[in-house]
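Quick question, first post here. What does this chain look like in 3D?
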Amino acid sequence: MNSFLQYVESLRLDSGVTTGIKFIIWPFIFGLILAFFLVFYRRRVIGSFVRAIQDAGAVDEATAKTLAEIGQEYNTSATNALKKSSSLRRLVTICPPENSPSNGKIEINENTRFYIDKDAQTRARVQYGDKEESLWPLIIGSVALLLLGLFVFFFILPV
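> Answer (accepted):
Ran it through. Tokens below.
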């Protein structure tokens, strides 16, 4: 332990450099926390849409389900993400209604049906999980990063 403290003491820098490092550490930590929230949102909100399609057994055009059939009619975040995200569209196949005009624009309404092809089932399970994500890992990870930042700020870098 004594050699570790000597090593840390030898890493001490002058006040100008440490002030710059402090301004780098906090945005980095808050960026990681923001990334935690974005990953959680994606797995929780978009993942609920993908899991609902999987749970309904929609694996081809014949078994495709509408938003109401899978209980996702109010999940506008998922439908908006489906319109914008090409990676999500590669995972979830959209069956447009018969009376829908094919002008190249993606239209999602109450008659639009969705399914996840059998080839994409494994990728969907890996990307979005089998069950809903808990909030605890996000909270614990964020608090741990804040504590790490405080430790570095007060004990590693000089004042």
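The radius of gyration is 23 Å.
Residues 39-156 form one domain.
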